[in-house]
Amino acid sequence: MKKLITVFVLMFTVLSASANSYAFLADDDARQAVYGALDKAIPALKSAPFGNRTIAILPMKAGHSILAGRLKNMLVQSGFVCVEGKEDPMWDEILKEIEWDERKDDILDPATVVKFGKLKAAHILMQCEIRVIHRNSERIYAEIELRATDIATKRVIWGGTFANRFYFSKKVRGITGLDVELCELLRKNFEKAHKSLTAPVTAAKFNNIKTVTVVPLSGDIDSYITGLAKAMVTRTNLMPQDPHIPSLAEVRTAARDGLFNSDAILYGSVRALHKTAPTQYTQGKKVVTAWEVIAEIEISIEEAKTGNILWSEPVLVKETLTSRKTCPSGCSGRP
Hints:
- By secondary structure, the protein is α/β, with parallel strands linked by helices.
- Helix content is 27%, strand content 33%.
- It has 10 helices and 14 strands.
- The strands form 3 sheets. Strands 8, 9, 10, 11, 12, 13 and 14 form a 7-stranded mixed β-sheet that branches. Strands 2, 3, 5, 6 and 7 form a 5-stranded mixed β-sheet that branches. A two-stranded parallel ribbon has the order 1-4.
- Helix 2 (28-39) runs parallel beside helix 4 and helix 7 packs parallel to helix 9 (224-234).
- The longest helix is centred in the middle third of the chain and has 19 residues, at 180-198.
- The relative contact order is 0.12.
């Protein structure tokens, strides 16, 4: 049964930590990575508190229409109805008022949201940002953020950050669930991060910081990794806080608007989490099976009021694990 929500216009503001992210989107692998991140938003979107109100999703940057189509298909499959924004007679006038071509991030400003109140049909504005497209030799990490703003109240009423790791090689298995090996590896990641955070040169930057709001880490699995981040903070002189807000943009907006008291904001992402295909060799009378487990996280802490980065640390942990079984009769030595 179709939901009684009309998706009115498409807004896809693209922001990226990589200067080459726009070029990446012409690459099939990069598109697949972003598609995967979008698809992970479907379960959360189905439970969004939109009621019967119409949603306006504003137009995306030229050259990214293929992503717009993907998002529209996702919305239709979730029970939404899509309508082109140009059908609203006030649309062109509003875009001129906010200098849309140069200042697509103005939608985050409550004063700008007021201008969209002139729309004849829309009650909610939907925004999507591509926050990160990061490539290395093994994978592309894509991270997007979706949020919906109520035009009447100027408040974000729904949102979340969704990430996907797209691996190139068939010899690498991306992780969708944590086992004992990976839990132990991730704990080592945060041990390294803790040493960096508590080093004297870093600790001095936190003299006036007492509380830290911990935003759920992008690419987390079952909130386990975010839990490790909170535990890491408790082992310092800082006090972690849970904002019950799923995305960094919402936390920053809430801090700016004075909706919660926190000195700093911790956020980050799980850039890589995978195992390599096992290989075998003989060692004496044993058959040895070996494989690598890799976890890469990146964590930052910024001052809530100023946005200044107080600490940022990428942490990569890689280990080779082995298992041994008795060798069949007649084999000996490494091949």
